[in-house]
Amino acid sequence: MPLQIVRNDITKMKVDAIVNAANSSLLGGGGVDGAIHRAAGPRLLAKCITLGGCKTGDAKITSGYKLPCKYVIHTVGPVWHGGDKGEKELLESCYRRSLSLAKENGCESVAFPLISSGVYGYPKDKALKVAVDVISEFLLENEMTVYIVVFDKKAYTIGEKLFADIAEYIDDRYAEEHSDCYSRRLSDMDSMPYMGSTVHRAPKMSAPTMASEVCYDSIEDDFCGSYSPVDLNEKLKELDESFSEMLLRMIDEKGMTDAECYKKANIDRKLFSKIRSNASYKPSKPTVIAFAIALGLTLAETEEMLKKAGFALSHSNKFDIIVEYFILKGNYNIHEINEALFAFDQSLLGV
């Protein structure tokens, strides 16, 4: 998956490069900066001394030394002064310059902290939006795996209103589902026999039913009782289109290129190649929904695509309800959907 949000210690990420949210001196500090310097060892500081510092919004690269990564990209984020002092533009530059250095040095994977969201005071939800917007724009034109690494939930947040809206939507759908299930259980109990009671008895059958008389109806009601292998073979020839076939058809109908589709779906090119070359490919549920989002499918079309792969949406599943919420709102930004899924501890799209 090209862009992933993960909860981890960035100093333990086994990637080509990690990004250090440094200060302008590049000589170490607190938070992520201090943790990276401690994990890398004294040679990192010795190298940084020779770099002559770094301007806000710019980035410089060094080796990773004792870290499990090849490189450390040091970038200096802006201090938050209310948002009207060019902070957004400077933070965007941090991500763009860091990604540019990663690309120039042949990196295939890079991990970012949420730059400026700590002691520099940049609001976390705004910092996350900048990170996702810039990284996703970069990934539309480049092949790279990028991680946004948060140490714990306190270091991560989506907008309060969005979180509240989704939470309310989940609560409403959960209530509907559980209410329906309770009603069905009561209905089932009414029809069940109960020993020693004069109520809730199942109706008696008038006579035993012979096995030879049982009729197994197909959807088309066109065969009953025994059937031959020839009949079964004919049925198998009538199989509906597969997930892969529907996906490729929808890409053509939407006038998209393969690359546009798999990039919007946050899907790796190699995985898409497997799907394209295998009409019987069995995807995961998040993969199916990722493509539905990339194609801008309606809820009904999304459910149809899921059915092709053997899945369905359910109001007993938070993941499904969150996806449904965004589709019904007409929001097909897969990275914003993943932000919400991460906030609610759900699997991300594109896996």
Number of helices: 13
Give, in order, the helices and strands. EEHHEEHEHEHHHHHHHHH
Provide mean pLDDT, rounded: 85
- Biggest beta-sheet profile: 6 strands, mixed
List the helices and strands and how they pair.
Blueprint: E1 3-7, E2 17-22, H1 31-40, H2 42-49, E3 59-63, E4 71-76, H3 87-104, E5 109-112, H4 124-139, E6 145-150, H5 160-190, H6 229-236, H7 243-253, H8 258-264, H9 269-277, H10 285-294, H11 299-308, H12 318-328, H13 334-343
Parallel strand pairs: 1-6, 2-4, 2-5, 5-6
Antiparallel strand pairs: 3-4
Helix pairs in contact: 3-4, 5-12, 8-10, 10-11
Entry summary:
The protein is α/β, with parallel strands linked by helices.
Structural features, described:
With 351 residues, the protein is α/β, with parallel strands linked by helices. It is 45% helix and 9% strand. Strands 1-6-5-2-4-3 form a 6-stranded mixed beta sheet, with helices on both faces. A hairpin with a 7-residue loop joins β3 and β4. α8 packs across α10 and α10 runs antiparallel to α11 (299-308). The chain is globular, with a radius of gyration of 27 Å.
What are its keywords?
single chain; 351 residues; alpha/beta; six-stranded mixed sheet
